[in-house]
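user: can you give me the structure for this one chain? tokens are fine.
assistant: on it. calling the predictor now.
[tool input]
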Amino acid sequence: MTSKTTLDLGCGKARHPDSIGIDINPDSNADIIHDLNVFPYPFEDNSFDVVFADSIIEHLDDIPSVMNELHRITRSGGKLIVITPYFSSLDAFTDPTHKHFFSMRSFDYFTDSFPEYSYYSRSKFRKTKVKVTFWNLPRLKGIRPQHFLGANFLATRFPTIYERFFAFILPAQEIRFELEVIK
């Protein structure tokens, strides 16, 4: 195992600097070619301090198994960063290879927030941050009209209200989760 402690899951051509990249595509910038739907991943337990899953998790078949595997290969206290299209984003439905759509509570099933659903996974995480981002309009110098209309305020301060009533009226672009591995 190399001294790198960062994994870029499904790195594609834009691998995070100083990370080990893993991807199924041999034309990617991956160090390791591996199908991420096949378990176990080719890493020892507790190999990484940080795992980036940027625009990949929505493509994978079995989210609970992926989370179990990421939990296995990440050290206790390590960080998992997941970036994916938000469920109301046009990008969520544009790509025909997307299999899953994510809301602000999608990873709560892997925390203590939903103990009645703990049978999904024994792997536990602490959700440390969730942030939705909104489209900008380059022709208007990056202005995001959703900010003026209060979507950012609603999504940040009242996420349940935003998701139930406004997510498709003022859609977000993507969602970023930061999860801490609990062992």
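assistant: here you go. The chain has one domain: 6-133+174-182. The two ends are 22 Å apart (CA to CA).
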